[in-house]
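Quick log. Single chain, no ligands specified.
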Amino acid sequence: MIDLLVQGRWFMIPLSLCSIVGLAVILDRWFYLRSVSREMSYMLEQIDPLVESGEVDGIEQFCEGNPGLLSNIFGSGVQKYKQLLEEPNLDFIQHEVTKVMEDASIINTIDLERRLPLLATVGNVSPLFGFAGTVTGMINAFKNIAAAGANVDASMVAVGIQEALVTTAGGLLIAIPCVLLYNYFTSRNDTINARVEESANAMIDMLVMDIVGRRKKAPTGKRAMMFSKRKPPRRARPIAVLKRATA
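-> predicted structure:
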């Protein structure tokens, strides 16, 4: 291994740094996603039955007792829902609860994607360093040929060609696993986000149905008063309609 580093000359230094950085990011993301997957499986196994049975208080208590990124997402939605129980506009409640949960999920997405751009950079830059070493190696080979004149020896050319091939191979050997694992980690992140989003949407639907059930059970006079407190906000007219109106 040391011989290969020496044969590749100066461009093996940035390639070595790329290999160290790439390996560090791969190990970090591997163990982090493994931990997140276990946490997600446990959390959703507990929360999904509570959502199906409509136990709003149970979801809140579970999130408070199990702090974490997923607990923040579901817990923030339940808290916002309880703040808006007296709000007459169901669309407004659904919008606000969804917005709060989306804001909380941003942190989860950021943590999942952390350091992945660095891994992608290593995968893209490593072949370039290898190709640069290829160019300098061939330059050195032809330089030796020119210096030797008519007395060309194969060993003079072999040193430059060897440098070119070693750096090219080094760049590709670093880039290939980095690119493959970057795509793998990205796919895993998309799967985790889709699973969380599915459960979050189910909880939002459950909260809306819960408040509808509460209002159906309320006395007639009180229910009428609740729905008369606030008029639904006027929706903006679609752009296509505005264009026709102003035409």
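Residues 221-232, 235-247 have pLDDT under 50 and may be disordered.
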